[in-house]
């Protein structure tokens, strides 16, 4: 019987150096095929969609949940609590980016 080893990838913690962290985190999320959701968000559902289209959107929502999980692991609670909109990976990423830009102006 083959032994399955599921090693959790290490998520880089945000240390206040946004540009460096963002580059590494983007690369990590690209490797997991989640970056498109962070960059573009979840496609909106249209009325009267076929079952296949609804299934695709549900799959995207699950991927977004996984991407959010990685972001939650990377961001300290004190920082996360300052981000108002945490419903999608895109919103978390955009909020963090905006927060950092405001702090460094």
Short description:
By secondary structure, the protein is an all-alpha fold. It has helices spanning 18-31, 35-40, 51-74, 77-80, 89-103. The chain has a domain at 14-41 and 75-105.
Describe this structure in words.
By secondary structure, the chain is mainly α. The protein has a domain at 14-41 and 75-105. 60% of the residues lie in helices and 0% in strands. The longest helix is centred in the middle third of the chain and has 24 residues, at 51-74. The protein is globular.
Helix and strand arrangement:
Elements lengths: L17 H14 L3 H6 L10 H24 L2 H4 L8 H15 L2
Organism: Castanea mollissima
Pfam families: Retrotran_gag_2 (PF14223)
Protein name: Retrovirus-related Pol polyprotein from transposon TNT 1-94
**What does the main sheet amount to?**
none
Kindly provide the radius of gyration, computed on alpha-carbon positions and rounded to a whole number of angstroms: 16 Å
Coarse shape? globular
| Count of separate DSSP helical elements | 5
The helix-strand sequence is: HHHHH
Query: Count the strands?
Result: 0
Distance between the termini: 58 Å
Low-confidence stretches: none
In percent, how helical is the residue content?
55-70%
Mean pLDDT: 85
Protein name: Retrovirus-related Pol polyprotein from transposon TNT 1-94
Pfam family, one: Retrotran_gag_2
